Amino acid sequence: MKKSKQEIRNRILTFTKKRGPERSVSTSEVTRDLFSDVWKNHLDDVKNVAGELQNEKLIKITQNGQDVRIDEAKGPIRLSILKPDQDQ
After folding, report:
1. How many angstroms separate the Cα of 64 from the Cα of each of 26, 44, 54, 79?
2. Cys-Cys link to 3, which of 7, 15, 17, 42 (CB 3.0-4.6 A)?
C-alpha cells in the first residue's frame, strides 16, 4: 500500500494544523493513519517527509520537549505546525 510523498505531506500538515502550534503529533500516529496494520514498514517515509517540511519551515520537530533537527534525532519525535511568526 504505497502512498505518494504528497499524500504523506498532506496528512502531516492536516494533523499538525488540527492540533495547533501548542500541541504535537507523533510520527507513529500519522503513519498508523496512513498505513494501518503495516505502519512500522513506513515510519521512515513519514520521518523523511517531516524533515522536508521542517526544512521548508512549515513544521517543527521536537524530541523530549526540545527542538531538534530531523537529522540529529535518535528515537521518537513529535511534529507540530509552526506559528506564522515562529522559525525553527
Report:
1. 12, 19, 17, 12
2. 7
* Measured torsion, CA atoms of residues 24, 28, 34, 37, in degrees rounded to the nearest 10: -150
* Residue 12 confidence class, pLDDT cut points 50, 70, 90: very high
List phi, psi (to 5°) of 56: -85, 0
pTM above 0.85? yes
Pair 74, 66: CB distance under 8 Å: no
> φ, ψ for residue 60 (rounded to 5)?
-115, 155
Question: Parallel, antiparallel, or unpaired for β 78-81 and 25-26?
Answer: antiparallel
Q: Cell 524530541 appears where?
A: 63
